[in-house]
Amino acid sequence: MTATETALPRICDFPQEVTQDQCKFVQREGFIQFGRLLEDSDLIPLRFAYERVWEANPIEEEARANAAPGHRALSMEHFLDEPDIIRLIANEYFLRIVCAALARPPEEIEYAGGYIHRQRCQKAWDYEEFGWNGWHQDAQPSQAPLCHLNIWIYLDDCSKLDGVTQVLIGSCEQQRENLRKKRHPNDGINEMWGEQDSLDTGFFAEGPAGGGFAWGGFLWHRITPNRTGRPRRLVTWEYRHKSVCESEGSLYREKTTPEQRSLIAESLPEDKRFLVAV
Ligand SMILES: O=C(O)CCC(=O)C(=O)O
Ligand SMILES: [Fe+2]
């Protein structure tokens, strides 16, 4: 049985715990799917906030030459003033998953930034139009344990035909193995692209409205073409070990002023303010 045929661990709706198996899986593979983490009382205001942010930021980001067709993202400085996005930094289910995956107590975790993402749906697109196959990673491979995690939340039920994110199963282990054996970190990665290149053999991070998947590290991943014309609406929250934010900085620390950071801290429950640097 290949990795892609295996039934993969998946965290349930509103999890009270993350099991050992789920924990090991996310630390090995660099991702894990989860069910609903947001109640309608959080999800519905989040959708309205999402639409307001796009409406307030119509074009500039879309004009970025290196943006994926079908995909545009706005980073968190565009939604600092949206409490229905910001307060979710302290969501208990997000934190439960982050603490388990990053193997740290909540006090040693920090919010590092976030984005709102979408798929352009005026027309179908494919990778040929994209000009490349889309596979990339956002961080350099290392042998160290996972120290940052993205919580990736779909605002609507999102299937693989709606253009969810695809992850390259086995890509983190392959890179660790390469590092151990002193090979180039990407040895064998092209072959994996080939094996996981279809809707049947690939792994697509589908999720329900208010659910999605968590991922981090140096996982290889890509956006996938939207084939339904339904919008793919997505918001992300990124967390890291506090010590990493202190030593390396973060999008959050860079993109906010001290005044903004105090306001944000005050908008979180008192016992969760440690999540944001001031
Ligand atoms: O939109 C997606 O599905 C992938 C986006 C991506 O690669 C990223 O945000 O790092
Ligand atoms: Fe990426």
* Chain-averaged pLDDT: 92
Bound molecules: 2-oxoglutaric acid, fe (ii) ion
Q: Strand order, main sheet: write it out.
A: 1-2-8-5-10-4-3
The chain-level structural class is alpha+beta
Which bin fits the share of residues in helices? 25-40%
Order of helices and strands: EHEHEHHEHEEHHEEEEHHH
Q: What's the CATH superfamily, by name? A: q2cbj1_9rhob like domain
User: What's the structural domain tally?
Assistant: 1
Report how far the terminal alpha carbons are from each other.
49 Å
Observed structural traits:
278 residues; alpha+beta; 3-stranded antiparallel β-sheet; 10 strands; 31% helix; disordered N terminus; binds 2-oxoglutaric acid
Summarize the structure.
With 278 residues, the chain is α+β, with helices and mostly antiparallel strands. The protein contains ten helices and ten strands.
